[in-house]
Design goal:
Largest sheet: 10 strands, mixed
Distance between the termini: 49 Å
Strand content: 15-25%
Number of helices: 18
Oligomer: single chain
Helix content: 40-55%
Shape: elongated
Radius of gyration: 28 Å
Structural class: alpha+beta
Length: 451
């Protein structure tokens, strides 16, 4: 099998590539579409690197974002899900492993979150990453509340809601007027922003993102924009939904705190649920992420969202995480282990011991040599006189029991900070770390190159 793999930082070029068409056709939600990814790039500052793997008629599109040596899902807290799109089950099975291998050539860490269990991608992706040499951990990191309408009318569905909810809506509904529109205009958008800003919701990261999204969805007939008004015709609650492929997505909802006695959010939700079930004839309602209690009143199902963390064990910066993961698995829920210098308080920044510094400086004239010894003494909690006695042939990694894999990463990071140099992954090998002389020569060369 010959698999062609290409990466796109221009979403428009990806959409124009005919090889991606079969995979992109499998988009079943707003978060699967290139238009959503382009909005994340333009309005939220996310740097995309979307992978395309192709073998004949089979194609796989994996929306990712780039952050230095790491990559993560092309998503943020606006996204309900984030997943690779394959032209079919066989495409996922055949293409995800070679793509996982190629990603390891480019990145040292992958963080894949918001993976929907119902899409069937979690297990194949984990297996492919492990097969490609990644160290993989996978765990649930969120919950999605959803409703299977199951052919019911709104009346049948609503009769099964908690009694207190039905009573609240019956009482408050007489004092609140609701409307649902399928378009966006300036007046309604100003009302939405004002309600959201005054609500209990956290500060909105990008109103421009939602305005652009709402307008695009309205143009396609998918937008459902709802408002509730009090007796003075004041907008007191707003919700933004979309409907596609027989699923209603509840994206945004907010109400004014001073109108809480009218329960405008609940009354408006009931109106929009009625429209979605009886007019749009949806089969599913998706209430997004977050295990909020009020969602259980409206939704009947809950399903997990998973997070995969994949680390390339060849890269020294990943070693502390890999050691912690191994200890966590070994202890099976016991106290978490991890390297910490014996003389460092939990959570305290690393500091040079003045006694160590004085003892070493008095014995060593070379500034680079002396500083390196200080770092070794501080990080490994070694006696200053012992470190001052190191010669060029003194063994380090594989010889000092204090210098394990996790301590190596801590040591190299501290060397970077104190000497003002950058240590690349390809710099780290057994020869450089084997002896004190080898490490000293390496640091000297790095300092000279940085000068």
């Amino acid at each position: 099998m010959t698999v062609a793999i290409e990466y796109f930082d221009d979403i428009g070029k990806l959409q124009a590539d005919p090889r991606a068409t079969l995979a992109l056709a499998q988009a079943h939600a707003p978060f699967d579409r290139p238009e959503w990814w382009a909005l994340l790039q333009r309005e939220c500052g996310i740097d995309p690197i979307v992978a395309l793997a192709v073998d004949g008629e089979r194609a796989l599109v994996w929306p990712l974002a780039r952050t230095g040596r790491s990559s993560r899902s092309l998503a943020n807290f606006y996204s309900f899900t984030a997943r690779p799109l394959a032209s079919g089950p066989d495409a996922l099975a055949e293409l995800v492993t070679p793509l996982a291998r190629d990603l390891r050539r480019r990145f040292s860490r992958l963080t894949l979150d918001r993976l929907p269990v119902e899409s069937g991608v979690v297990e194949p992706v984990c297996e492919a990453l492990r097969g490609a040499g990644w160290s993989v951990s996978c765990e649930q990191d969120d919950t999605n509340h959803w409703l299977d309408v199951d052919g019911r009318t709104f009346e049948d569905y609503f009769a099964a809601r908690p009694g207190r909810l039905r009573t609240t809506i019956a009482r408050k509904g007489r004092k609140v007027v609701t409307e649902t529109t399928r378009f966006v205009d300036d007046a309604r958008w100003r009302s939405y922003e004002a309600i959201y800003r005054a609500s209990w919701k956290p500060e909105e990261a990008s109103f421009s993102f939602w305005r652009a999204f709402a307008e695009a969805e309205a143009a396609e007939g998918r937008l459902r924009f709802g408002f509730a008004y009090d007796s003075d015709e004041r907008p007191i609650a707003a919700q933004l939904w979309t409907v596609e492929r027989a699923t209603a997505y509840i994206h945004k909802l907010a109400h004014l705190p001073d109108a809480e006695r009218l329960s405008p959010g609940s009354v408006l939700t009931a109106t929009m649920m009625r429209d979605a079930i009886d007019e749009d004839h949806v089969k599913t309602v998706d209430f997004g992420t977050g295990d909020d209690g009020y969602k259980r009143d409206w939704m009947e199902g809950a399903r997990p969202r998973y997070r995969i963390e994949a680390h390339d064990p060849r890269h020294w910066r990943n070693w502390p995480v890999l050691v912690r993961n191994a200890l966590k698995a070994r202890l099976a829920g016991g106290e978490k282990g991890g390297y910490r210098p014996a003389n460092a308080a939990e959570g305290a920044p690393m500091a040079t011991s003045h006694a160590t510094e004085n003892a070493i400086e008095s014995a060593i004239d070379d500034p680079v040599d002396a500083k390196l010894r200080q770092v070794l003494a501080d990080i490994l909690a070694l006696d200053a006189e012992r470190v001052a006695a190191f010669d060029a042939e003194t063994g380090l990694f594989g010889h000092l029991p204090e210098l394990d894999s996790q301590a190596v990463a801590t040591l190299l990071t501290e060397i970077e900070d104190r000497f003002g140099i950058v240590i690349d992954d390809e710099d780290v090998d057994g020869e450089m770390l084997e002896t004190f002389g080898g490490l000293r020569d390496f640091v000297r060369a790095k300092c000279a190159a940085a000068a």
